[in-house]
Amino acid sequence: MRDTQPLLSVRNLTVAFPSLKDLVPAVRNVSFDVGREKVGIIGESGSGKSTTGRAIMRLHPGKTQITADRMQFQGLDLLSQSERQMRAIRGHRIAMILQDPKYSLNPVMTVGEQIAETAILHENLSRREARLRTIEMLEKVHIRDPERVMGLYPHEVSGGMGQRIMISMMLIAKPALIIADEPTSALDVSVRQQVLTILDELVTGNDMGLLFISHDLNLVRSFCDRVLIMYAGRVVEELRASELDQARHPYTQGLLEALPSLTDPKDRLAVLRRDPAWAEV
Ligand SMILES: Nc1ncnc2c1ncn2[C@@H]1O[C@H](COP(=O)(O)OP(=O)(O)OP(=O)(O)O)[C@@H](O)[C@H]1O
């Protein structure tokens, strides 16, 4: 029977950073679930999207205060895991793709060595088997000349290729959940589509969950199944991507009105409205 429980269940997550005097909340009472589906988080800069993603991985500096009524992943309470237990979860059961793959790949190891190391760790393969698996994985993410790419260092690959390499490593580790934080915003439009297609193949083909953080509403609308809209540290609205046009919150409506359209061009785009009341409890 198919498991209908969400992979990740978050209730009233609050993240506060220390300032000179006290703690300043950047994320406030955020609640959502992620199943085996693609969930987008959108919102403007500073709305708390990345902070939410990093809190799930518990990747914040020491004095950050993370509280939640629930932050459960596949039956595990993430907040009560020790740092050692979190290390076993990160990369293995929950993986993260960031905007620039150069920061996620090890700069002093070739691409081939890094993928092979993942294969040896996860699948207990010999060096020779790991090499063959690496070639297979690079082919799966549509890299045409895998043997050449294996010998390159991270600084020698383009952004789009770097993201595909990250995705190929995830194909080996097969995490249940991927948190992708603006994974395509540094890429050209044509490469962006390629990377999204491969990410979709990975997630849908392996029945994974994806939390896709972006400031691009059009992209999230076409790529994700559901969308959380964040404003000033809160989720102000949650909708199926196909139902965004029926958004009720004035902030979401404003985001939609501010989008340029090729089919229905406007002389002037609407200016995004903001109301301090939306940030209130
Ligand atoms: N380590 C930190 N220490 C202190 N404040 C932080 C830290 N990380 C984030 N913040 C603050 O938390 C708030 C939310 O930031 P966050 O990066 O989550 O926003 P975002 O929606 O992801 O924006 P962007 O799209 O620009 O990445 C911001 O005000 C930011 O300055």
From TrEMBL:
Any Pfam family the entry gives: ABC_tran
SMART domains to which the protein is assigned, alphabetical: AAA
Cellular compartment(s): Cell inner membrane
Domain ABC transporter: 8-257
Membrane topology: Peripheral membrane protein
GO cellular component: plasma membrane
Keyword Repeat: no
GO MF terms, alphabetically ordered: ATP binding; ATP hydrolysis activity
SUPFAM superfamilies in the cross-refs: P-loop containing nucleoside triphosphate hydrolases (SSF52540)
Cited InterPro entries: AAA+_ATPase, ABC_Ni/Peptide_Import, ABC_transporter-like_ATP-bd, P-loop_NTPase
Presence of the UniProt keyword Aminoacyl-tRNA synthetase in the record: no
GO BP terms: transmembrane transport
PROSITE patterns from the UniProt entry: ABC_TRANSPORTER_2
Key words, A-Z: ATP-binding, Cell membrane, Membrane, Nucleotide-binding, Transport
PANTHER family membership: DIPEPTIDE TRANSPORT ATP-BINDING PROTEIN DPPD, OLIGOPEPTIDE TRANSPORT ATP-BINDING PROTEIN APPD
Sequence similarity: Belongs to the ABC transporter superfamily.
The protein, known as: ATP-binding cassette domain-containing protein
Natural source organism: Paracoccus litorisediminis
